[in-house]
Amino acid sequence: MSKIMIxxxxxxxxxxxxxxxxxxxxxxxxxxxxxxIVVTALKDGYSEKENxxxxxxxxxxxxxxxxxxHIGDKKVFxxxxxxxxxxxxxxxxxxxxx
Length: 98
Prior knowledge:
The protein has helices spanning 17-31, 74-87, and strands spanning 3-7, 35-41, 49-52, 55-60, 63-66, 69-71.
């Protein structure tokens, strides 16, 4: 069993091409016994945590200034880094330097 983290801007329940392809792939990986977490953007009305078809979904507040530049506060970035470290069981092995 492998641990796999996917970071994608849109995911279930949003419906578009990116979501459809990502969902198809990760649900197949989950059915094969892999531990999957998808980290995606938090939108109004969506929960921060849920499990859908064996895939753990975590949503974080990410804002876009325009189509090519993401903006956000340092706390959201730190939360994402913490989630990745915790998920991968890296603890203090990873430097906090950016």
